[in-house]
Amino acid sequence: MTATLRALIVDDEELARRLVREYLRSHPDIEVIGECDNGLEAAKAIGAQNPDLVFLDIQMPKLTGLEVLELTGRRSGVIFTTAYDQYALKAFDHHAVDYLLKPFSQERFDEALAQARKLAAAPAAAAAALDSLVADGGEKLERILIRDREQVHVIPVDKIDCIEAQDDYVGIHTEGRTFLKRQKISELEAKLDARTFVRVHRSFIVNIAQLQAIEQHGKDGHAARLRSGKRIPISRAGYERVRTMI
Amino acid sequence: MHPLFADVRKLLWTMAAWLLAGLFVAGLLVTAGMAGWGRALVFALPVVLVFGFLALSAYFVCRSLPMARRRWPTVIAVFGGASLVSGFAWLLLCQAWNLAGASLGEERGFIDMTPGATAVFFSAGAGLYLLSLFAHDVLIAFETVREAAEREAESRVLARDAELQMLRTQINPHFLFNSLNSISALTSIDAKGARDMTISLAQFFRQTLSLSEQEKIPLADEIALCESFLAIEKTRFGRKLGHAFEIDDAARGCRIPPMILQPLLENAIKHGLRHLDDGGVIAVRATVGGDWLHIAVANPTAPDDGRPAARAEGNGIGLRNIRQRLAVLYGERARIGWERGAEAFTVEIALPAERGPA
């Protein structure tokens, strides 16, 4: 019994999408449910339709392929395609994630599809690989993506005042607003540039560019006052860390 | 400044050598019976040391006659004259020093200055100065050869680096592989389209290879290259890519370094048009004003949303590359500036307008 697999094709070039469609013709058990030509549309489509399989280009307008995964939390049923991307490919090889190099043949395409079908049967392993890929990312974060129902908020990292841990979420304080993102604060800390973002407290990361002053707080504690006026506590370890930075 | 003065150790060694020579001269004086050791040394050491410094002036005499342009009569006159003058000057110095000795209590000075001695001192001074001239000549020749070899090695390295850089910019992997992928797709959709694109791609690379070998090309050739490039990109991006070229007739014939414009168009697509839902139009203008060629490239951009490319990161490297190439060829006389406006990115280049055979 072969159930039909629902597939989404994501690539900003129409010819590339048509090529994937053509290659899929020899796989009658796969139904193309949609096409997207940029990362933002892809994120929405994945959220709305939850396809079994996504053909995902890496370099795209609006959001990159990796950002789409990060935003949607999707960790399975993905086949990456790219013409050339040295940095991404190193990461892919490192985390044992399969990808197709354009231009690819029908044979190569079929191989990747067979691999994806196998992984669908053992989703946990596949998810682990993609998890570490997305977490690793490579370069330091330049922007944080937050999904808010139908909308996607893009927050440039230098506009962030501070980040506050709230159970399974983090609150990102930026320009007077706060956005919630489902992520552990330590994960976020690892991906942010340590020269700008300092973990001053178990529950707080501060952007030192937004730091106005460090004040005494209580007997021998400290607190940080930001340009916005907000005050956040600084732990003893955090004080050591931030002291060396300024 | 004499090169010896730059190296204190060498200077000290040289002075030590001259002191030894002074000892030798003193010894000669003693052997000739002209003075005892004491007086001979007091006389000889200072004057020989001074001669040592005097001999260094030979460096400047040699420098004043560049080897490439020497003519025998001039050399003989200058070298001969300098030697004679030095010999004479040194003789005067010796005699003055000797007489100084007289004021210190020695009747007729440290040594007995006979006419014979005078002649010897003069000849020695002149002869040794001449030797110094030849020695300096040899040293300068060595130095020139060494510098030339160094410069040649350096320029070979630079040339190879530039060549490698050129090759890298020519074979843009993204462009190549994406184009090939498009051709692959077209083979079953539109065979004629596939063939056309294959030919355009080959033409583009052929043009790139031939143009980049030349130091300067007419702007018209660069424009033709850009049009080949855009023809290929239009197949990939369709209606998202529009272009408007306004090139003055006078500008067409101006000679510019190759691959200045094409990378700018590539940037305009990669960092600008691609990210716009409906794409846009790349505008290129080239005008000649006075002695200057002005080229401007403008394209619409998506609002800055923190994407690294939007911050002209990727743009920056290519643009700085062009700036460097222009600096190498034109020095201060060429300018490239770029600006990221709210909705558009513009690049402006100003070059001296060189009209050549078109």
Output the keywords:
heterodimer; A: about 250 residues; alpha/beta; Rossmann fold; OB fold (Dihydrolipoamide Acetyltransferase, E2P); 2 domains; 5-stranded parallel β-sheet; 5-stranded antiparallel β-sheet; 8 helices; 15 strands; B: about 350 residues; alpha+beta; Heat Shock Protein 90; two-stranded antiparallel ribbon
Structural description of this entry:
The complex is a heterodimer of chains A (246) and B (358). Helix content of chain A is 35%, strand content 33%. Chain A has 246 residues and is α/β, with parallel strands linked by helices. Chain A has 2 domains: 5-136, Response regulator (Rossmann fold, 3-Layer(aba) Sandwich), CATH 3.40.50.2300; 143-245, LytTr DNA-binding domain (OB fold (Dihydrolipoamide Acetyltransferase, E2P)). In chain A, strands 2-1-3-4-5 form a 5-stranded parallel beta sheet. The model of chain A has no long low-confidence stretch (mean pLDDT 88). Chain B has helices at 3-6, 8-31, 37-56, 58-63, 72-103, 115-170, 173-189, 191-213, 219-237, 249-252, 261-272, 313-330; strands at 217-218, 241-247, 255-256, 280-289, 292-300, 335-340, 344-352. Helices cover 66% and strands 13% of the residues of chain B. In chain B, helix 5 (72-103) crosses helix 6 (115-170) and helix 11 runs antiparallel to helix 12 (313-330). Chain B has 2 domains: 3-161, no CATH class; 171-352, Histidine kinase-like ATPase, C-terminal domain (Heat Shock Protein 90, 2-Layer Sandwich).
Summarize the structure.
The complex is a heterodimer of chains A (246) and B (358). By secondary structure, chain A is α/β, with parallel strands linked by helices. Chain A has helices at 14-24, 39-49, 65-72, 86-94, 106-121, 123-136, 185-191, 236-245; strands at 5-10, 30-36, 53-57, 78-82, 99-101, 143-148, 151-156, 160-166, 169-174, 177-181, 197-201, 204-207, 211-217, 221-226, 231-234.
